[in-house]
Specification:
The complex is a heterodimer of chains A (558) and B (431). The radius of gyration of chain A is 23 Å and the shape is globular. Helices cover 8% and strands 35% of the residues of chain A. The longest helix of chain A is centred in the N-terminal third of the chain and has 13 residues. With 558 residues, chain A is mostly beta strands. In chain A, a hairpin with an 8-residue loop joins strand 2 and strand 3. Chain B is 79% helix and 0% strand. In chain B, helix 8 packs antiparallel against helix 9, helix 9 packs antiparallel against helix 10 and helix 14 packs antiparallel against helix 15. Chain B is globular. With 431 residues, chain B is an all-alpha fold. Chain B contains 23 helices and no strands. The chains are: A mainly beta (558), B mainly alpha (431). The interface between A and B is large, with 53 and 57 residues.
């Protein structure tokens, strides 16, 4: 009897009419407060990423690369470091491709300082992270490659020195992945986490086929590898403590990584997005011993218990409940996933009810980041999109190699809305994007975006949002703890609003951005207090903070 | 006329009328065959939407979704009541994140034919993407209530409840799924999440362990599958040929339905030529020959299948049956004995060999034992009947009657069983 409802007959002509109407009538699109302008051309950035491809389709081609946004010369604005693939076997370049550093000159002009800085690493680059590992007041750079990784010490005069060998952090000759500086035991200096992808070599290379066309194989073809954790010895050298710390007990297929105190117990934990394997959450016991608890915490799989082809990961408190939530991008036909932190050691998959997966199922999603683009007091999402197979259109027209990136606006009630088509021409750029970085490139109080595109020039997106919401940016200066306050948790209380964030080194897809914490305040015109909980240190309360500016909070100055 | 059809084909599906001279000869041959088939289908079935659906499926298999969508839309223009076509189009929309469209199309499909498999689950999935949980829940609950054994539906409903924080309801759904599929890692993971939220640590730990065991096994199987698929990966030309073979095999159903045996046979032969290792196409040709009384040709096809798939019990059974029809007793016996050796716990081999002996009026005692074994393995009405027959011809009337009564108990309306039982009963009462 119940089914009879479905048997109601509809005239054939009426159905045809319905179908044609639904195609013809296009509702007017609303304009949103968030707007991005593509300013790539005016920046003078002439970097073009190469992936080392020569038709052989080595799996490491498609995984390259990330980028870093940081102030390498301490002049107060954010510079751009773009990672390139290298000359893989069978490919030829003259001169050899290298990573490039661009100094921010202001007014959206950048100068290539690769040569003078010495940061032009020529390895097949995958990831980059930044941190002041020697606590000398400037930012050092660690790059993961297919081949030996590289650590560049900032000399403080605009130049860098490759100290990989001395420091002992080359990590053999693996396929590198996300990397992060973190202080694992709160001793005041930064240790180093270096993730690895899979056990690929030229000799075990496998060419995949998709519907008769050559394609990259998935990671399951290869053996998994363990990640690496280095302890900073405090004298410019590091010791591999992967086994002793428990990190090496869990081999995976690492991609993006982020280090954060998910359980608010005062130490920094490690999240690894694994490609076609359950994601890892390494819980720190405070002394630098880690236990993998991703499955236990409900964050390793999707709601149904499926492992994802995870790519990038970022964390932030999207619902302003005081706990860091995680967003993980993934492969085609899988949604990027939002895991809400329940605060009791567990996460719940809120992808569907939050709408955070909108627009992400049709293609491969990579770089990602939370940021309050419209300064309204909640964090929105940016997602970099693009297929890994350049010939995918030949065998799957549902998707494309080049694609538009996504902006998901947080509506403030726990939901996200895909506004990508309605937030300016900057989001109409179609490339095959990989890593991305979110930071305030023009120091105007809103968050801009840099996207690294495979085999192409980057996309620089200027935030031109009409929102006039107030804001605050905070730069931390550790004195007893690590210099940049990496791992420190900051809480901003402004009238009825309480926001948290942490300083992270390494996030998204193999990228680094956002060490200056940004808080959108909406219409709150007064900040009551800012609390900083330093990793390995105390919690301090700072008062009399002005809005709409970048401030530096120094440990011990409260 | 040929030119007009070629133009029509181009307009419909964008197939180039002429191929480039630099094209690989194998590829060119396939493209010509594709054009030929397309033209033929459109010419022979100008009023039927099914030819358009088949062509759409062909392009979708090749990943050419735009062309597939055009063809399916044209099929709907001819017959807007094709639920399966709405379903095809909805799947594409869903895969491209267009959930408004997928929801609309699955709603249409549901109105046209609510019994089409997976429609309710698919529509629910689409509604969930749009945040319309209440309707998704109602849909799934109704479907599960009606079908009773909808494991995917139970999983989906469990997920909806879990996301909405309705833990007791989620628990009920996952438990239901476990009843239907006791080893489901999905259900175990759902229950782990539910009991974690409900702070029932003991149950949570138990289901987590079960989930991890299931996952571990799944991963091993998956790895093997990935490696195997890689080793069997097709070249572009081979994949194209396989898709064309599928099109031929599907198209022949249209010709078979209108009684065009010549084209049916041609298409089956084409399918085999294009995809020579595909035993399914050869089975179709074997059945076609057998139905047409061309038993020798059917047997020859079967011999090829045996070479391609030597461990296939169905092939041996068919060889036995076909050889028997040709009066080749020894060959039939050999094939059926092979079938028994290959699958000693399946009743089919015993049944067919018993029938062979009984029909040939030889080794009747053995036939009786074989029939008894078939009954033991699968106590079905035809097997009891066979046993009754074997007992009858070997003079064991009481056991024959007993077996026939069992057959009738299982299939009371079967007239053949009734007649044989009546005959044996009558013979028993005759002085």
């Amino acid at each position: 009897m119940i089914r009879a409802f479905f048997h109601r007959s509809i005239p054939v002509t009426a159905i045809a009419l319905l179908l044609s109407l639904s195609v013809a009538v296009v509702p007017a699109r609303p304009r949103h407060a968030i707007e991005f302008q593509d300013v790539t051309e005016q920046t003078g950035i002439d970097f073009k990423h190469v992936d080392g491809s020569s038709g052989r389709r080595y799996i490491v081609e498609a995984m390259s690369a990330g980028l870093a946004l940081f102030d390498y010369d301490q002049d107060g604005d954010i510079d751009i470091y773009l990672v390139s693939g290298g000359a893989l076997r069978g490919s030829q370049y003259s001169p050899p491709p290298r990573n490039r550093l661009y100094r921010n000159e202001g007014n959206w002009r950048f100068t290539d300082v690769t040569e003078t800085s010495g940061l032009g690493d020529t390895g097949h680059g995958l990831a980059v992270t930044v941190g002041d590992y020697d606590n000398d007041g400037d930012h050092d750079v660690y790059i993961t490659n297919f081949g030996p990784n590289a650590l560049y010490r900032n000399n403080g005069d605009g130049t860098f020195t490759n100290v990989t060998e001395t420091a002992g952090v080359a990590n053999g000759s693996k396929v590198g992945a996300g990397a992060n500086f973190l202080d694992i035991e709160g001793d005041g200096d930064l240790d180093l986490f270096a993730s690895s992808y899979i056990n690929f070599t030229y000799d075990n290379h496998v060419l995949g086929m998709a519907r008769g066309y050559p394609a990259y194989v998935g990671p399951r073809v290869y053996n998994l590898t363990a990640n690496t954790l280095y302890r900073n010895n405090g004298d410019g050298t590091f010791t591999d403590i992967s086994l002793a710390s428990g990190i090496a007990n869990s081999p995976g297929a690492g991609m993006g990584t982020v280090c954060a105190d998910y359980d608010r117990d005062g130490d920094t934990d490690i999240f690894v997005a694994n490609d076609n394997a359950p994601d890892f959450l390494f819980a720190n016991n405070g002394a630098g011993i880690f236990t993998e608890c991703g499955t236990l915490a409900g964050i390793a799989y999707d709601l149904y218990g499926n492992e994802m082809g995870s790519m990038g990961v970022d964390c932030a408190d999207y619902d302003n409940d005081g706990y860091l939530d995680f967003y993980v991008t993934s492969y085609q036909d899988q949604l990027a996933h939002l895991y809400r932190n329940l605060g009791d050691g567990f996460f719940e998959d809120k992808t569907l009810t939050s709408g955070a997966g909108a627009g992400t199922g049709g293609n491969v999603t990579w770089g990602n980041g939370f940021a309050d683009f419209d300064n309204d007091g909640d964090r929105d999402l940016f997602v970099a999109v693009g297929h890994l197979d350049d010939n995918v259109a030949q065998w799957d027209q549902r998707t494309s190699y080049a694609a538009h990136n996504l902006v998901l606006m947080n509506t403030g009630n726990g939901r996200f809305v895909d506004i990508s088509q309605d937030c300016g021409e900057g989001l109409k750029v179609a490339r095959s994007s990989r890593g991305c970085g979110l930071d305030d490139l023009d120091n105007d109080g809103d968050i801009d975006i840099v996207v690294l595109n495979s085999r192409s020039e980057p996309t620089i997106l200027r935030n031109n949002s009409s929102s006039k919401g107030h804001w605050l940016q905070i730069r931390l200066r550790g004195t007893r703890t690590n210099r940049d306050g990496i791992g420190a948790c900051v809480k901003v209380v402004a009238q009825d609003m309480s926001l948290i964030d942490e300083v992270h080194s390494g996030r998204g897809y193999q990228s680094h951005h956002g060490m200056r914490l940004h808080f959108g305040l909406g219409n709150r015109s007064k900040i009551d207090r800012v609390e900083v909980r330093w990793i390995g240190g105390k919690t301090e309360v700072f008062r009399n903070i002005e809005i709409d500016r970048l401030i530096t909070l120094t440990e011990g100055d409260s | 006329m040929r030119f007009i059809l070629a133009v029509l084909a181009v307009l419909l599906v964008g197939i180039p009328a002429q191929t480039e001279s630099t094209e690989d000869p194998q590829f060119k041959a396939l493209r010509i065959k594709e054009q030929q088939l397309t033209q033929q289908l459109l010419r022979d079935f100008p009023e039927s939407e099914q030819s358009l659906v088949l062509l759409g499926d062909f392009y979708q298999n090749r990943g050419q979704t735009d062309q597939a969508l055009k063809l399916w839309q044209q099929a709907l223009n001819k017959n807007a009541r094709r639920a399966d076509v709405y379903d095809r189009m909805a799947n594409v929309a869903f895969a491209t994140d267009d959930y408004e469209t997928s929801t609309r199309l699955w709603r249409m499909a549901l109105q046209m034919n609510p019994s089409l498999p997976n429609l309710h689950n698919n529509l629910a999935r689409s509604l969930m993407q749009l945040g319309q949980y209440q309707e998704a829940q109602q849909l799934l609950e109704k479907e599960i209530h009606l079908s009773g054994d909808n494991a995917p539906g139970s999983l989906l409903l469990g997920a909806v409840h879990l996301e909405l924080g309705q833990y007791e309801d989620a628990e009920r759904c996952y438990q239901k799924m476990l009843e239907l599929d006791p080893n489901s890692p999905h259900a175990c993971y759902g229950l782990y999440q539910v009991y974690s939220r409900l702070k029932d640590r003991e149950k949570a730990a138990a289901y987590l362990k079960q989930f991890q065991q299931g996952k571990s096994q799944w991963r091993e199987t998956k790895k093997k599958t990935v490696v195997r698929n890689l080793s069997q990966a097709d070249s572009e030309v081979n994949f194209y040929a396989r898709c064309l073979a599928e099109l031929c095999a599907d198209a022949r159903k249209l010709y078979q339905a209108k009684g065009d045996r010549q084209t049916t046979e041609w298409l089956l032969t084409q399918a085999i030529e294009l995809d020579p290792n595909n035993v399914a196409h050869r089975y179709e040709l074997m059945s076609f020959h057998a139905d047409a009384g061309r038993v020798q040709e059917a047997l020859e096809v079967c011999r090829v299948i045996e070479r391609l798939d030597p461990n296939n019990i169905s092939c041996q059974l068919n060889m036995g049956l076909l050889a028997a029809r040709l009066g080749q007793f020894e060959q039939a016996e050999k094939a059926l004995l092979t079938a028994i050796a290959m699958a000693p716990t399946q009743a089919a081999g015993y049944r067919e060999l018993a029938q062979l002996y009984l029909r040939a009026k030889t080794r009747q005692a053995e036939a009786r034992d074989l029939a008894a074994q078939a009954v033991k393995l699968e106590p079905a009405a035809p097997h009891y009947f066979l046993l009754g027959w074997a007992c009858d011809v070997t003079g064991d009337r009481d056991r024959a009657m007993e077996a026939l009564q069992q057959a009738l108990a299982l299939d009371p309306k079967n007239q053949a069983y009734q007649q044989v039982l009546q005959r044996i009963t009558a013979e028993g009462t005759r002085p």
